[in-house]
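Today's session is about reading a structure prediction critically. Students often jump straight to the picture, but the first step is always the sequence itself: look for stretches that repeat, for charged clusters, for runs of hydrophobic residues. Only then move on to the predicted structure, which in these notes is written as discrete structure tokens rather than atom positions. Here is the chain we will use throughout the hour.
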Amino acid sequence: MIGSTRSVRVWAHARPADLRKGYDGLYGLVTEGMARDPLSGDLFLFVNRERTRAKVLLWDGTGLCIYQKRLEEGRFASLWKKDEQEVALTVSELALFLEGSKLVGKIVLSPEIYVHRPLDARRHDG
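Below is the predicted structure for this chain, in token form.
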């Protein structure tokens, strides 16, 4: 499975994608359709109209990689509403999605993305 010890964001392209697209086509969907940087190290999930095939595009630091999966039975869960452009997932949610887990409701389990802020000196009363 795709994994990392660092914080990785997953962006699901909410509209069906033509999965005949390769590196350049998916790169274009990320830059133009999602207004994101494919070279950021984030993962980008694409699913076909029937939700039987999925591709994940990622930059591993040396080049673009495409991981793909075709379900032999059933469909991938529908993670988005019709009017959404993209959906943010965790790597764990992506793994469950690719394993064919059913969607039972999204519960936020992960903390917000950490933003480093300097300590306020007034809070320390020595």
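Discussion point for the tutorial: The mean pLDDT is 83.
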